[in-house]
Structures are given as structure tokens and as C-alpha cells.
Amino acid sequence: MIINEAYFALEDQTFRLVEAICSGETMSSYKETKRILAKNEEANAKIRAFNEAKEAYERVEAYPDFAPDYAEIKQRVYQAKRIMDLDESVYRFRAAERELQVLLDKISERLAHAISPNILVSAGDPFFQSGDSSMPAACQIHISSRG
């Protein structure tokens, strides 16, 4: 890569974009919900309980026929996950996290498509919808560009 004035201009624009994202409402909401979640002992206890249940399940996951309490361990993971997911702080954090991810996905798509509409954008969200397509962006096939 040749470093010239165009490179520096592009780097400046990148820094401005990052500053705009970091100072925006979406990022503020994300940081605030993350801070609230970090201080919420009850929510953190639920997260720890889920992680412990998940680790117990991962130890027996490969051997369902040989672990006598496999079904119980698996059920505990589902129960712990549900309890964790229903916590208000966890829910608000995940919603803010998803909103930030959608913003980043949209920016990535706009940048890529400014160069060429044929560039496939792999979004961080498997359910991210691109344009009029009903398929996720990473699965789009641009048939019109293929002769």
C-alpha cells in the first residue's frame, strides 16, 4: 500500500466515523446498560449460575449415553438461561447490544456497497436483513452480476 494524501484523508474520515459512533445515542445507551448490568448483583448471580450450568453440560455433552444425569443437566442449563434472559438488566443490555450491532452492520453494508453493490457483507447478526432480500446479507447471491 502506498501511503499518500488520499490514505491520510481516508484515515481522518475513519476516525471521524468512529468518533460519531462512540459519541452517538446508540453507544451511550449500550455503555449505560452495560454499566447498570455490571453493578446489578442479582443479574450477575443469574449469569454466573447460567455459566456454571453451561460448563457442567459441556463436560457431559459429548457423552449423553454415558452420563446418567445428562437430561437433568441439560434441563438445568435451559432453566438457568431462561432465568438469566428474563432479568430486566440482562434484557436491556442485550437490546442495547443488538441495537449497536445493527448500527455497525448497516454502516458496514453502506461502506461496502458504496464501492460495489456486488460486495457481500457478512453481518455480525445472522438475522440482519439487507436491502429487499429476505435472506441474511452473508447469504445473498448477486445473480445479476454473474453473466
Automatic annotation (TrEMBL):
It holds the Pfam family Com_YlbF. Coiled coil: none annotated. InterPro entries: Bact_com_dev_regulator, Com_YlbF, YheA/YmcA-like_dom_sf. It comes from the Bacteria. Gene3D superfamilies: YheA/YmcA-like (1.20.1500.10). This is Cell fate regulator YlbF, YheA/YmcA/DUF963 family (Controls sporulation, competence, biofilm development). It comes from Trichococcus collinsii.
